[in-house]
Design brief:
A hairpin with a 2-residue loop joins β12 and β13. The chain contains 10 helices and 13 strands.
Length: about 325
């Protein structure tokens, strides 16, 4: 239904975690963030990851070096943050009045916020918490790597590749290459050379199989025939960026149709809707749903890749159960 519109039902991280954390509710991650051993940071994209993984990437060396003026401003902000303990971006702007700047998309943005983002990316700051979605920062010092020799960098790059493969496998060969490019583009630009070499080694040590002309890779210690991969009869409404559907190349290879995230597509040109959630039934994504909460009631708009819902009461019952779970997930604690 291309006319479906409206905000996302919840943040992408919440929609992802609801399938992996028992009794998870929208907003739980933000509410519990300060008590958990996790961080907001970049890996192959920006998001949340276990704190233990930061040592593989930090101190991070950005691909674009700061000039002397930017380094001076960052040092002044760092002193300010250390003195205050935690800061809201508006506090930094009020104190320093850095003004506006042209951003990477050609528009203008707050120069202080841009500097804070850069300091966070380089490991000078961490996100202590969020207030109404805004990052509240504090100073942090990442210890230097125990071994920063070429061999040490190679081991960290290999560990990062293993991390993303375990998260997104099974991967077509082209997707494996793409993920490593994202890894060195976002999470570890300073490890680009060992990561390229690590990709070659990964292709040799990962399990692989050629199927219908496509080579697939997955961790060597994973058995695709294991009982833990057995298919159940549940319906799951997935986030557009869930690891199951994030790789659009793999999506089309597995399920034979092309899904698009259309939040930034002009409404008249949408096929799926503003924030369509891929609909997984057993081991196949068979359609999508746009969902809204109105006066405590879930209002789903469904679409199917084959033009109609799967036949039978098993699907209808499983879909109803998933809509009930979604209603509970979106309800306030």
């Amino acid at each position: 239904d291309g006319a479906a519109s409206g905000p996302a039902p919840a943040r992408a991280q919440d929609l992802t975690l609801r399938h992996r954390v028992e009794d998870y509710r929208a907003g739980d991650l933000e509410r519990r963030y300060e008590r958990l051993a996790i961080e907001e940071d970049s890996l192959v994209n920006y998001g949340f990851l276990p704190r233990e993984h930061l040592a593989l990437m930090h101190p991070r060396e950005a691909a674009r070096a700061w000039d002397d003026d930017t380094r001076r401003k960052a040092a002044d902000i760092l002193d300010f943050v250390r003195e205050r303990g935690t800061v809201h971006p508006r506090d930094v702007e009020r104190h320093f009045a850095h003004g506006r700047m042209t951003n990477d998309w050609g528009g203008t943005s707050n120069a202080s916020s841009h500097l804070l983002d850069g300091m966070h990316y380089r490991g000078l700051l961490r996100v202590r918490r969020r207030e109404s979605g805004t990052r509240i920062y504090e100073a942090v010092t990442h210890p230097l790597p125990v071994d920063d020799s070429p061999d040490g960098r190679a081991r960290r790059a290999a560990a990062l590749i293993d991390l993303v493969v375990r998260k997104y496998a099974p991967l077509p060969a082209a997707s494996l290459t793409y993920l490593v490019r994202l890894l060195v583009g976002y999470g570890a630009p300073h490890l680009s050379e060992p990561a390229r070499a690590g990709l070659t080694l990964a292709r040799e040590r990962l399990s692989s199989r050629r199927i219908d002309g496509t080579v697939w890779f997955w961790p060597a210690d994973e058995n695709p025939r294991s009982r833990r991969h057995a298919v159940d009869d549940r319906v799951r409404l997935l986030a557009p960026f869930d690891p199951v559907v994030w790789d659009r190349r793999r999506f089309e290879l597995l399920w034979g149709w092309r899904y698009r995230f259309e939040a930034y597509t002009p409404p008249p040109e949408r096929r799926f809707g503003h924030y369509a959630l891929p609909l997984l039934w057993r081991d196949r994504v068979v359609g999508w749903a746009n969902v809204l909460m109105c006066e405590g009631r879930l209002q789903p708009t469904l679409g199917y890749a084959g033009g109609a819902a799967p036949d039978g009461s098993a699907f209808r019952d499983a879909l109803e159960e998933e809509l009930q779970r979604m209603t509970r997930f979106l309800a306030r604690r």
